[in-house]
Specification:
heterodimer, A: 20% strand, B: alpha+beta, five-stranded antiparallel sheet, five-stranded mixed sheet, binds adenosine-5'-triphosphate, binds magnesium ion
Chain lengths: 127, 543
């Protein structure tokens, strides 16, 4: 069974950056799912049941926090790892993301190597 | 109200009572003088009357006694004593005042005794008889007998030339005394009447005088009373009183009243002005309050906008920055892993290009990081100034804070090849604060020390002094000129120093430190000598 990573970001270049950074995992058979808004993300999580969701916090419409709490509460998916990314690193944001049930929080800008390391850790894979 | 009445009374009654007192006194003295002179007059009159009456009686008595004595002598000479007795008895009966007549010889044998007939032909032994018998000339004897006063006329009776005896005519003084007493009574009545009339006249005078005095005193005191009431009114900001004052007289009270009216008019006018002024003031205050409220809500709006702006800016700048830095790393990675292995490093030009690309990428990364730091600092200080920072205050160990800060700074102190020495006093008390923020203060101070020092260790010292914990970062670097020591804690302030290449910053580090320390109720300052080094210290109150 292949692992699945869902990348959610409204910014096209950010989606591309994350996709390129995680290319190595793709080469190793991990499936990269990429969506550009909150409601699509919820749909995708429901349909594909990914192992990891890399979720942008600030998006127009349904934002990252909403998506996170929907996954935890309405979809009742406790196992999926949710890693939130936010440009706003204020303590209050970190707290908010914890409250809606995320497992990790990273501030932009981030070092792609860090993300790679973190993802490898979560998926228990060696790069 | 009571007080007002009191005042009315006091003024009017003072006047009335003095006036009436004066009138009564005057009348009393006048009537006393009058009565006493009248009394004296009456008494004098009485005494003259009494003597007159007495003289009259004496004259009458003398005449009668002389007549009767001649008659008796004639009677004795003609031995017709019965006729004499008849005449004498008749005289006694006719004269109301003549109470008795006695004819006796010198041996006091009574021949005629009108009052006691039984004593006729008897020898009289009473004192008056002895007295009469002993007289040789006509005399008047006054004596008392059985409570009655008698005036006895004693006339000698002669037979021829020989004294024979005496005729005694006794006039009772009682009717006279009675009359005198009556007169006295009449006089007393008279004087009593005078006194009564005096009293009546006094009363009439007093009442008429009182009424006149009342009217006059009212006239006098009324303007005073209304003045008093107006003054009272003034003190309770009632100006209508003064309009009721009518100046009737031209005396001092009148002058006072018109002066008062003038004054209260002015007072009313200035009070009105004051009222107007305070009304406009109130209005103005109201307007200002509205404006302030407006401004305040605008400020709140701006505050919200500022917060929104901050998060927008941080998002809008960080996202592209994240992309730039992210792609630089990916490019770097791809170059390292895919491209550079294929490059023929033997060719000089290619080799040079490869090493330059590596360097350039390094610079892009470094500057990108600096930009990120700058944005973080700007956001931090803006938030602190806007009081939008969530402080997590707790009891903290100072050495712990320093330890965690050194973990961060060690990497770049190694880069600058500088040693950092810890000098922390044992058993430091805890402080209350936000550990991340305090750690940031220590990091900023140490990074400055490292940045502005060429050689020698940087010392991080902590001591308890009085009720404060003092944390100092001491270096042997370029130092800060005295004039700049205040300025460097301001935002974006960087001062000139010898180092040129090494220094890269924005001048926000110390401003952030100051904000954080002051939020903890502490203070931060620098002691430095230009060219010799600096000692940056911040003090926090012990928990
Ligand atoms: N230890 C020091 N020795 C000498 N000068 C110093 C020291 N620390 C600060 N300064 C002076 O104070 C100025 C302000 O320091 P501050 O930390 O606020 O800004 P910065 O270090 O220039 O930039 P950054 O915002 O990156 O910290 C510095 O530019 C420097 O001129
Ligand atoms: Mg600094």
């Amino acid at each position: 069974m292949y692992k699945k990573i869902l990348i959610v970001d409204d910014e096209v270049n950010m989606r591309m950056l994350l996709k390129e950074a995680l290319e190595e995992f793709e080469e190793k058979g991990v499936e990269l799912l990429i969506v550009e808004n909150g409601s699509d993300a919820i749909e995708s999580v429901r349909a594909e049941k990914p192992d990891l969701v890399i979720l942008d916090a600030m998006m127009p419409g349904v934002n990252g926090f909403d998506v996170c709490s929907t996954i935890r509460n309405e979809l009742a998916m406790k196992d999926v790892y949710i890693l939130m990314l936010s440009a706003d690193g204020q303590e209050i944001n970190k707290q908010k993301s914890k409250n809606v049930g995320s497992d990790g929080f990273m501030t932009k800008p981030f070092d792609p190597d860090e993300i790679v390391e973190k993802v490898a850790q979560i998926l228990k894979m060696e790069i | 109200m009571k007080e007002k009445k009191y005042i009315k009374r006091s003024i009017r009654w003072k006047l009335i009572s003095t006036m009436i007192g004066l009138i009564i006194g005057l009348l009393l003295t006048l009537s006393y003088i009058h009565v006493s002179t009248e009394k004296k007059n009456l008494a004098r009159e009485l005494s003259t009357l009494t003597t007159l009456m007495r003289e009259n009686l004496v004259d009458r008595g003398k005449m009668l006694s002389d007549n009767l004595a001649r008659l008796t002598e004639n009677g004795i000479a003609s031995f017709n004593l019965s006729n004499v007795t008849e005449i004498i008895t008749k005289s006694v009966n006719e004269d109301r005042e003549l109470s008795y007549a006695i004819l006796m010889d010198f041996s006091r044998k009574a021949y005629i005794h009108t009052s006691m007939q039984e004593l006729q032909q008897e020898e009289l032994v009473d004192e008056a008889a002895y007295y009469a018998a002993s007289q040789i000339t006509a005399t008047i004897n006054e004596y008392n007998k059985d409570g009655n006063t008698f005036l006895e006329f004693v006339v000698q009776i002669y037979t021829g030339t020989n004294p024979w005896g005496v005729l005694r005519l006794g006039f009772s003084l009682d009717p006279l005394n009675q009359e005198i007493a009556n007169m006295k009574n009449d006089l007393l009545d008279e004087s009593r009447k005078i006194v009564v009339w005096g009293i009546i006249i006094s009363i009439i005078f007093i009442s008429v005088g009182g009424i006149i005095v009342y009217i006059i005193s009212s006239r006098l005191s009324e303007p005073l009373i209304s003045l008093t009431e107006s003054v009272r009114g003034l003190s309770s900001e009632n100006f209508s009183f003064s309009e009721e004052i009518v100046v009737k007289s031209e005396d001092e009270v009148g002058v006072l009243a018109s002066a008062f009216i003038e004054m209260s008019k002015r007072l009313k006018w200035s009070y009105k002005e004051l009222e107007d002024y305070s009304r406009t003031l109130e209005q103005k205050v109201g307007e200002r309050t509205l404006e302030l409220r407006d401004a305040n809500s605008k400020l709140q709006e701006q505050d919200k906008m500022r917060t929104d702006f901050l998060s927008t800016v941080s998002h809008e700048i960080r996202t592209p920055l994240a992309l730039v830095l992210g792609f630089v790393r990916i490019i770097n990675m791809k170059l390292e892993k895919v491209v550079f292995p294929l490059v023929d490093v033997d060719v000089d030009k290619t080799n040079k290009a490869v090493s330059q690309i590596k360097k350039n990428i390094g610079i892009i990364k470094l500057e990108g990081d600096r930009l990120t730091d700058l944005i973080d600092d700007i956001l931090d200080i803006s938030k602190m100034e806007a009081k939008k920072v969530d402080w997590h205050m707790e009891n903290l160990s100072v050495s712990n804070i320093i330890g965690r800060a050194l973990e961060v700074t060690n990497s770049f102190s190694e880069m600058y090849k500088l040693e950092i020495v810890e000098d922390i006093e044992d058993g430091l008390p805890e402080v209350v604060g936000d550990s991340d923020k305090l750690k940031q203060v220590v990091i900023n101070l140490i990074s400055n020390a490292v940045k502005f020092t060429e050689e020698g260790p940087v010392i991080c010292k902590a001591r308890k002094i009085n009720s404060e914990v003092m944390i100092s970062v001491i270096d042997k670097g370029v130092g800060v000129d005295g004039a700049d020591q205040e300025k460097i804690f301001e935002k974006f302030s960087q001062v000139k120093n010898g180092l040129k290449d090494k220094v890269k910053g924005t001048g926000l580090g110390l401003a952030i430190c100051k904000e954080i320390v002051e939020h903890h109720g502490g203070r931060i300052w620098v002691e430095s000598e230009y060219g010799k080094g600096s000692n940056f210290t911040f003090a926090l109150p012990c928990a």
